[in-house]
Predict the 3D structure of the following.
Amino acid sequence: MKYITTIDEKEFLVEIIDDRHVSIDGKVVEVDFESIQEQPVFSLIVDEKSYEAYVYHGEEGLEVLVKGRLYHSVVEDERERRLRAASGGAVAQSGTLHLKAPMPGLIVAVSVEVGQEVKKGDVLLILESMKMQNELKSPRDGVISRIEVGAGDSVEQRQKMLSIE
Amino acid sequence: MKYITTIDEKEFLVEIIDDRHVSIDGKVVEVDFESIQEQPVFSLIVDEKSYEAYVYHGEEGLEVLVKGRLYHSVVEDERERRLRAASGGAVAQSGTLHLKAPMPGLIVAVSVEVGQEVKKGDVLLILESMKMQNELKSPRDGVISRIEVGAGDSVEQRQKMLSIE
Amino acid sequence: MFNKVLIANRGEIAVRILRACRELGLQTVAIYSEADRQAMHVRYATEAYLLGPAPSSESYLRGDKIIEIALKSGAGAIHPGYGFLAERADFAQAVEDAGLEFIGPSASAIAAMGDKAIARETMMKAGVPVVPGTEGTELLSDEELLKLAPDVGFPLLIKATAGGGGKGMREVTNIEEMPTLLKSARREAKAAFGDDNVYLEKLILGARHIEIQILADKHGNVVHLTERECSLQRRHQKLLEEAPSPIMDDDLRKRMGAVAVQAGQAVNYESAGTIECLVDSEKNFYFLEMNTRLQVEHPITELVTGVDIVKEQIRVARGRKLSFAQEDIQVKGAAIECRINAEDPHNNFMPSTGRISHIVLPSGPGVRVDTGVYSGFEITPYYDSMISKLIVWGETRAQAILRMRRALAEYKVVGVRTNIPFHQAMMDSHRFMGGQFDTRFVEEEFSMEEIVEGKETFPDIAAIVATLVMHDQTERAAHVVRRGERDTSNWKWLSRWERLNR
Amino acid sequence: MFNKVLIANRGEIAVRILRACRELGLQTVAIYSEADRQAMHVRYATEAYLLGPAPSSESYLRGDKIIEIALKSGAGAIHPGYGFLAERADFAQAVEDAGLEFIGPSASAIAAMGDKAIARETMMKAGVPVVPGTEGTELLSDEELLKLAPDVGFPLLIKATAGGGGKGMREVTNIEEMPTLLKSARREAKAAFGDDNVYLEKLILGARHIEIQILADKHGNVVHLTERECSLQRRHQKLLEEAPSPIMDDDLRKRMGAVAVQAGQAVNYESAGTIECLVDSEKNFYFLEMNTRLQVEHPITELVTGVDIVKEQIRVARGRKLSFAQEDIQVKGAAIECRINAEDPHNNFMPSTGRISHIVLPSGPGVRVDTGVYSGFEITPYYDSMISKLIVWGETRAQAILRMRRALAEYKVVGVRTNIPFHQAMMDSHRFMGGQFDTRFVEEEFSMEEIVEGKETFPDIAAIVATLVMHDQTERAAHVVRRGERDTSNWKWLSRWERLNR
């Protein structure tokens, strides 16, 4: 079985040969992979090097914690990859982005207006939660197309707050 | 719903009135019972006294750990109780008792013979396991009716070793 | 003398105090909001009483209700912990008026020292140097503060008079931005302390934040337990503390200790308290404020002095004399505390809410964890984001740093983001290792990304793990594998894991 | 100088050593049997190598294979931990012959001190009092031992010459029972150490078992780290240790310390070692044996002296001088260790195997847990039953006892029985609290049942909990309740819990 696995924007071609062998980018390695009972923890021994991985489902794909660093992964098999390629691939990137509340809280201030151009990193609004004021920044360049909240509003977790075209 | 709950040989009549009320031996108490997420742990607040209980399935019934002490419980509803009473109740007590290996190990010695009378607490055999020699004692008075293992035998966990009539 | 203590707090500090009570053989009463029914402090206490809904203003800040519960339960004393009602003189007074023991200083000491403006004046009168700022103790309006600001000089700080922990604090670089900052400082102070009064203080650049722990009994004994180094802050929130301070010398320690004891004596102080100072590069120190309560970072002092500060607080509240004298206090080794917050250090330290699906705490030699969370704990947006404190001791500062690295590597939290990577980067920072930092270091000079960049990464390992996990999941879904006790598949899968993560 | 260490052990001690290596910045190599593939030490190490099947004789006792792995992996040193190969002179020699560093004493020191009979002779020659027994160093047959027994006098002990930890030890009250006991002692010794030689020793009644920790470097420095009290034993297995000993005084400590250092010097000792003594009621002491390795109970010494014994072992193995001198060693406070074994104290301490379905470790001030187990860990019958060590420190012995009570109450193990109730009863025992006990106390005078009997019990609470849990389970089964995210039932049920326990 062949997979295209993306780790933080870097692609790996991973083929599962049998229970003890995997090839990664064409290189065959011997793997000893074990799920730890009752825990979301896996032990992987590759060429006698021991790795402990904590794995959980993130927004898209699995989050993998290895040696203190968190890796975001997307695993696709060849069919999935072809389907995505056919449908235009990275189209979502340039479409509308909805800024959702990362946690419930109170809108302290909205720093932008509809129609305003924003750069990646610009502060869009301030959300008060956990007794802290948190600046929410734009994840990319764009134009504010819609604002659905105002200062003083309470928002629920994942509530849409504004949109960027 | 009414239950007869036996805790270490003491019987309690427990009636569940509603989500917040239970009567125990006729006395109504207010209970706040909560299961702790992801853990076999329950929090019970009765009359503002706080109890934390660890609960798991034992050989028969639930084992309940409260304030450092383990309680063996058997919970029966009225129907179960009637059925058991009809079938003779404590008959098993005086029937044949099979001594099973509490863990895998090696039989070092068998201290009794078939036909021998034994008292509760007499050593029946010695099982070596976890690098220790463990004396297995008779759980009650009786006569050895059958011996299925000998010195030098390896036994599996829960393997029948001998029987007491 | 009381034998039952009500703990008017939640989270790790409630558990910390419960442990101290248990070690003293005292009965305990926990209080909880609706959001905290499953919390460790509720399960750990002898008794537990519901306070009210989740928001602090309806639960942990309801002093009236708390006193009512103390009386009803027969608790003879109330320990306020830190935050919430800990530095409210009116609460301390109400506790006393109800005939209960407040485990902390007297209401008058809290009023004198807890109000930052009055404290500054008290210290100035006693001849202790203070950071220049708005003198006087009257409450000032925005208009008055704007008028006084140029005299204090920019940059300056707006600080909450009832404050602590950086809440209600704002840095001001010019008069133009001041009105807006005053407004937000007052709002934050109101939310945190129920009091929106603020004052101004000159910002001393290049300074270190060093504080002295004191303990005092009802018999006039005041002893200091040496210093803590607390310069590593972000938005005026301490992130990491250590004892002793890398810049400390015997002379400075003696001088600062003497001032701290003097400050305590000036207000007939009782219980634990902390004198916070700024120390400039010439080792001049300025009184900043006194925290009339237990500090978050008290454990590092416990580790280097061997004194259990919380137990000592309770002992002196019961009328006992301090169990040690000044000459008994010796600093041994070095201790570091990392505050583990549910915040994403890769995303501007955004708080992270949700359920901790799995947690592994570090353990072993020289490692202490104070926490109130567990696998299954839900982090709500109602309270602050600190989920635990990781504290280590080492024979030397270098060994403490190496041990902290080891402990951070063992600490695993699944389900929410934490600032563990920040602390790991800090432990690798040459500036930190060299002890070369001031209060602006974290915000202005420290780059987590830079330090992380140089480290070895394992994207290939992550790729193999992710692929094997997904592969197995897909296989299972396709074949509907029977789940027996023994699964011969090598990358066997746990149903719990699947359920947890779906 | 080596930078990579192979740890030739498993369980808590492997994790302990791995932590020390990590804190020293050293790479680590773990070895494991087929039963230990999921073990913490495997996941914790930089590298991990499979040794063989579960039985020790095919895995952790395979010295040849372990040296081969060390060479293959590039490890420059081997730390043997305790048990297994730790006191095998032939293994230490083979390690040295392979050009590797053995983190422990030289093969000749192990041979001189590790063999109990030779050790006795060495000590006698040095003028140190020893417990009377079969003198001489030749290996004795059953016939010879039976002939010598009356001279030694009854009661006496059969002890394994390669022994330690009570394995292969038998108490003999008369000549008639001796042949059988010799046989079983030899069998146990063979299984534990691969060597079935035994010797005889007079049983001193009313004695306390007190041992002195020493540390020595390659430069001739030998320092003692004061004593540990280890009298609380059952079947010659230590159950609970403390430091300092309640009977110790400065003079006795000085005398015993001097003898311990002298013993180390007599064999050019290097690394950590322990001189075990019996101390009678007149405070006369007799050399019993020397353990030429790290002891299970080393952490209590670490807590009262501040010295990290394992790190120090590694440092001296790298050729460094000891980081302290005799005069730097001061005892501060008191420490207690409870060995947490998977044994049922209510059922004759029968070992308990099976899966730990849930475990909660105590934490907070003054508490240390050294362990290799976790929720989900399977306890197999292949290795010993100790699953962890709970160690506490207190400012005084009384405070350490109170803290241990608190920690034991926090320690929860679900799925297997443990001896926690035994330790709880011991902490409540007046004899223990008064420090009034000898090596026979646990077996002959201590009754767990008696102590437990006086305690308040909560059968009604257990009844309510059990009933609510069963009721809910039945309801669910009957109605096939849909499992949504939010369950409005007040005694909601977790599917994981059900699965775990079915």
In short: Residues 132-202 of chain C form a domain with the Dna Ligase; domain 1 fold (CATH 3.30.1490.20). The first helix of chain C runs from residue 11 to 23. Chain C touches chain A through 57 residues (CB under 8 Å). Residues 133 and 201 of chain C are 4 Å apart (CA to CA).
